[in-house]
Amino acid sequence: MIRSELLQALHRDNPELRADEIEQIVDIFFDEIANRLAEGGRVELRGFGAFSTRERDARTGRNPRTGELVDVPAKCVPFFKAGKEMRRRLNQD
């Protein structure tokens, strides 16, 4: 699902809201998650999962085109862990 499909689904389920109101809600939702992660925090959505960050150590990588070795600096990356209910829904038989 892409962002526009999400907006359409929300509009279909909430016809009383204007399209720009739905877009604003979605923007706020994702901005708040991103801001919390940027601060080093964690976002937990019960029944869905938790967003957090993890540290990646510096390493030596390889340029796939040239084969040249390059230094890749340490960085912080986003991480998502699915909640119990989400895992259960994904693995229903």
List the keywords.
93 residues, HU Protein, Chain A, 2 domains, three-stranded antiparallel sheet, 29% strand
Structural description of this entry:
By secondary structure, the protein is of the alpha+beta class. It folds into 2 domains: 39 residues; 47 residues, Irregular (HU Protein, Chain A). The protein is built from 3 helices and 5 strands. The strands form 2 sheets. Strands 1-2-5 form a 3-stranded antiparallel beta sheet. The protein has a two-stranded antiparallel ribbon with strand order 3-4. The longest helix has 20 residues. The radius of gyration is 19 Å and the shape is elongated. The two termini are 23 Å apart.
Profile the largest sheet: 3 strands, antiparallel
Task: Give, in order, the helices and strands.
Answer: HHEEEEEH
Side by side, the strands of the main sheet go: 1-2-5
* Tally of alpha and pi helices: 3
- In what range is the share of β-strand residues? 25-35%
Please state the structural category: alpha+beta
**What is the CATH class name of the largest domain?**
Few Secondary Structures
CATH topology-level name of the largest domain: HU Protein, Chain A
The level of helicity is 40-55%
- Shape estimate: elongated
Q: In whole angstroms, how far apart are the ends?
A: 23 Å
What is the CATH architecture annotation of the largest domain? Irregular
- Rounded to an integer in angstroms, the radius of gyration calculated over CA atoms is 19 Å
What's the pLDDT, averaged over the residues?
95
Identify the quaternary structure here: single chain
Total domain modules: 2
Care to count the β-strands? Answer: 5
**Spans where pLDDT lies below 50 across 5 or more residues:** none
